[in-house]
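pls read this protein.

:::
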Amino acid sequence: MDIIKCTNENIEDLANMRLDIYHNYHNEPSTKLQEILTEFELDHADDEIFYSSSDSKLNGYVAIKDNYVCYLYTNPEREKQGIGSTLLQFAEDYMKDSGHDSVTLNSYLSRIKFYENRGYEYREKKRMIKYL
């Protein structure tokens, strides 16, 4: 699976793929590109974003800032295929190569087991940490 760094040149492609998922998942028309793109850019303005796609469909993406995973997203149509695990491992390696010795993130309660299975420790208020 190729992982691509999001740049100003390809952020619209990423937003379009995210919009297609939104349309399919919520059964709403895909007329919100500018709104989604603006929201996406605002949400991740200071983050580094890496994504994977195949067949012009988004597999998933991870947004990171320093040693914090801001967002890990997997296309619901492509869950249980190792995409989230691969993106998370990529983020961990990237952070380690950047000189960090731990990774932190927040998790939905329903996803805590996913992170614990990958070596993360539960802290307070859905905070998870892994030492690299």
Observations:
- The first strand starts at residue 4 and ends at 5.
- The mean pLDDT is 84.
- Residues 11-26 form the longest helix (16 residues).
